Amino acid sequence: MAEGRILMNDNDIIAKFWNRDESAIGDTEAKYGNYLKKIAYNILFSEGDSEEAVNDTYLAAWNSIPPQKPSILRSYLSKLTRRISIDRLKYHHAKKRDDSEYLLSLDELAECVSDNSGRPENELDAKLLGEAIGKFLCTLSKKAKNGFIRRYFFLDSISDTARSLGISESELKSLMHRTRNKLRNYLEKEGFIK
Amino acid sequence: MKSEDILNSLNYLPDNLIEQAAKGRQDYAGERTKTAYISSFLKPIMTAACVAAVVGISLFISSKNSHVFDHAAPELLPSDTFNECSFSENVMDMVNSDDRAEEDYLLSDEAGDLESAGTPIKVAVTLPQKSIAETTDSIEAEDYVLAFMYDGRTYTQYPQKFDVDEIYDEYKILDEKIGYVVSDTSKYDLPAIVTKLGTANFCGYVYTVKGFSPEFALAAKLDSGEFYVFFNDNGITLKNGGDIVSSRLNLTEHLDDFRITIDALSLPATEKNTEEVKRLLSVIEQSPVVHLDKQSTEEIDCTTILHFHLSEKWNIKPQIFYERLKIEVQLLKGGYARVMVNGFADVYIAIGEEALNEFTRNLEQIINE
Q: Does the pLDDT value for residue B325 go beyond 70?
């Protein structure tokens, strides 16, 4: 974080983006740099790659705001970082970093899916699936919901997620196992998987 | 569909869901990487330093509080719900929170004001012993009973979660932040019911609760962002118990609704009986809190206590809301009112038989009209 910089509120930062004031990037870095780096690091498991992904996030934010006007800047940036980091991981897939939380999460979520069902063909399908999962998460307890999002959106490690929820790792694994089963049933019921 | 599709689709989750989950998350990139860089030989040294700090703080607190516990009458000792060893071990899981990097926007004061825990008890009220089993209905299957030790006492979670923002905006029951707790339930001798339900460890800031002795109730904001009130649920001490029902709460003004049940007859609030109930509440507010110590509770066995309760005939449950705290008042034979705040605070008020009889007499008259 830039030393001595006063953290601006999100509306002011967004206003700077809209006014094409380049200091918006510095303000974003000061406020959310570490936060975004953690998300990138969970996926890429590399300091250097994470920094690059976060820098790409600032650029993506610069290019997308305007026309975008995020209601929650932190979540907006999180999504950008996550998407950029996953793309970067896929690009470097030849190296296959098995310790990436992204890859570990893929294995865990395998029990929610079926090879017999089709894949989302475009962004709209992916959006519908995301929205359906959002509705499903709203039916869960706060602990299960936050645990799922921390593990599979932020891609926090099992130990970090368990610690932040105040439960043991084995309890988290058990909770996530139950949640994934529920999700599978839900997705079957909603017709996403057969 | 592949699991990759699910992971990718999460980018379309609503922002508010992501934001809620982000609260309390360890979102400092440095934390993980720093941890990874800590050489293994440093860990024992750090552990030893932490232990030394904990022991030091424990001794400090013990010396500060020794006069408080000297004043605490024998009846303050825990009864058989909890193992007495846990009370006397004087184990404290607190560590200094100054090192915490977490942005704690809710808190304005510095962490670790340990001296506040030693505030002398001015009014000691003995609370009736409660069974944890009676209050676990709301615990969801995947939730666990939380517990931690503070100053040698085991505090178990009251099975109702509070949203932290709600607490700050509306309940305002937190008093002082007294430190940071790292729970390790493997060290505690918890009641069978807690063990059966499952326990979990957690980390979080600990606070005193307004109107309660830290010997009785503490609150903890977990690192996960959840907030719980914890009780040393041994039928023990309540600091300034009168605070709960004194003019500070102003029960009369906050009376929202009530129903009166007499035998099979259920009466809603009317203009006339509301006046009577308000008059009764006014008496309650002005009457002294009674110290039902161990000696007096021993004189009455459980069946007598149940018989004491007027609910066999009279069931008066005023719904009083004070800053969203639900307050119930029950009337007891012998001229006592039992005031409960959100079901977790029990205070007995000696309103006198005369006031009680006058109330029931007037109410009967209203009903007969």
A: no
Q: Find out whether B180 and B111 touch, Cβ atoms under 8 Å.
A: yes
Q: Rg for chain A (alpha carbons), in Å?
A: 18
Residue with tokens 């899916």: A113
Give the pLDDT mean for B187-216.
69
Option in A107, A126, A178 nearest B12 (CB): A126
Provide the shortest C-alpha distance from residue B351 to chain A (in Å). Answer: 43
- For chain B, positions 123-142, list CB contacts with chain A under 8 A: 140, 142
Q: Which of chain A's residues have a Cβ under 8 Å away from the Cβ of B8?
A: 86, 126
- Can you give the pTM of this predicted structure? 0.39
Maximal CA-CA distance, chain A? 55
Nearest residue of chain A to residue B21 (CA atoms): A146
Q: How far apart are CA B48 and CA B208, in angstroms?
A: 28
B40 exposure class (CB count in 10 Å sphere: 0-12, 13-18, 19+): exposed
Between A71, A160, A163, which is nearest B203 by CB? A163
B126 forms bridges with which residues in the sheet? B237
- Least Cα distance to B348 among B304, B293, B269, B273 occurs for B293
Q: Which residues, 6+ apart, have CB-to-CB distance to B320 below 8 Å?
A: B251, B254, B255, B256, B281, B326, B327, B328, B329
A152 touching B (Cβ < 8 Å): yes
Chain A contact present for B29, CB below 8 A:
yes
Listed in order, strand segments (DSSP E) in B240-296 are 255-262, 265-268
Evaluate whether B335 touches B356 at the Cβ level (below 8 Å). yes
B contacts of A184 (beta carbons < 8 Å):
none
Q: What is the pLDDT of residues B256-295, one digit of tens each?
A: 667 665 555 666 778 888 888 888 888 887 787 765 543 3
Q: Distance, in angstroms, between A191 CA and closest chain B CA?
A: 12
How far does Cα B117 stand from its chain's mean position? 16
Q: How long a stretch of residues is chain A?
A: 194
pLDDT, position A50: 86
**What is the DSSP annotation of chain A?**
--TTPPPPPHHHHHHHHHTT-THHHHHHHHHHHHHHHHHHHHHH--HHHHHHHHHHHHHHHHHHTTT---SSHHHHHHHHHHHHHHHHHHHTGGG--TT-HHHHHHHHHGGG--TTSPPP-SHHHHHHHHHHHHHHHHTS-HHHHHHHHHHHTS---HHHHHHHHTS-HHHHHHHHHHHHHHHHHHHHHTTS--
Residue B358's SS3 state is: helix
Which residue matches tokens 């004087």? B90
A90 Cβ under 8 Å from any chain B Cβ = no
**Residue A79 or residue B57, greater confidence:** A79
Query: In this complex, how many residue pairs, one in chain A and one in chain B, have their CB atoms less than 8 Å apart?
Result: 173
Averaged confidence pLDDT in chain B:
55
| Sign of the C-alpha dihedral computed for residues A113, A115, A117 and A119 taken in this order | positive
What are residue B325's DSSP bridge partners?
A: B322
- Report, as ranges of residue numbers, the positions in chain A whose pLDDT lies below 50: 1-4
Confidence grade of residue B334 (pLDDT, cut at 50, 70, 90): confident
Q: Which residue has the higher pLDDT, B327 or A92?
A: A92
- Angle of helix A158-165 relative to helix A142-152, nearest 10 degrees, comes to 150
